[in-house]
Amino acid sequence: MLRSIHDTFGYPVEALDGTLGKVKDTLFDDRHWRMRYLVVDTGRWLPGQKVLVSPHHAKQPETGWQRKHFPVELTKEQIENAPKIEEHEPVSRQYEREYARYYKQSQPYWSGPYTWGFTQEPIFFPPHEEVQSPSRVEREQHSERLDQIAESHLQSAKEVIGYHVDARDDSFGHVEDFIFDDEKWKLQYLVIDTKNWLPGRKSLIDIGWIESIDWKENYATVGLSRKQIENAPKYDPSAPINRDYEKNLYDYYGRPYHWKEDASVLTPM
């Protein structure tokens, strides 16, 4: 199912033994356009602290999201003992590897040919034996390794929302939201708010039509003209995105349907 990232902000995150907090943000991979982590604000439970939760720990998200919450296969103790992150701290592949090591995740997503390792969707693999919470020394070592990490390929969705959007011939709006596939945790569409020149109108473009994003100057460049986007099928955020709308969108732009490309192209890591 296709969902709005922005709409998930504020969803409660439920551990095996209680509520962890609420979704504050999501981090996505700007190379493969996959959501990699939920940023969870732990609220009154751990005041002022935020933690990361991987889709690998999500338990049937399509079921949970119908009730507007995320159930995860983690305990509150595991989360409480994990080193915390700053809200806008970048997370790199080294951090992800450290995350997998810390939680004893046996099959990290980069270990196979697909975008989730050996599968197209994130799958929870229960441990063969009870996993003990890391010791104080392990937590200290984990924190030290995180301090050594500088580069990152993960970006904050909340930060990118609001970026200016440049067409090939004009600057015409800003990033309003992302639409993602909740089975593959894949970003599928960029929502553009064109209120600067078309009040009340929002447009969708395939995430693959983004030519570049300038993280320093805060704008995204798309490989389309302003007129193309202006005359595209109108997007209504209050209505679900169905296959008929998607077909009209791709037919209008003269582009191949994304579901055919997804079925025929293997995305290596």
From TrEMBL:
- Native organism is Pelagicoccus enzymogenes
- Any GO BP: photosynthesis, light reaction
Q: What is this protein called?
A: PRC-barrel domain-containing protein
Q: Name one Pfam family in it.
A: PRC
- Gene Ontology, cellular component aspect: plasma membrane light-harvesting complex
Q: Which InterPro entries match?
A: Bac_photo_RC_H_C, PRC-brl_dom, PRC_barrel-like_sf
Residues annotated as domain PRC-barrel = 160-215
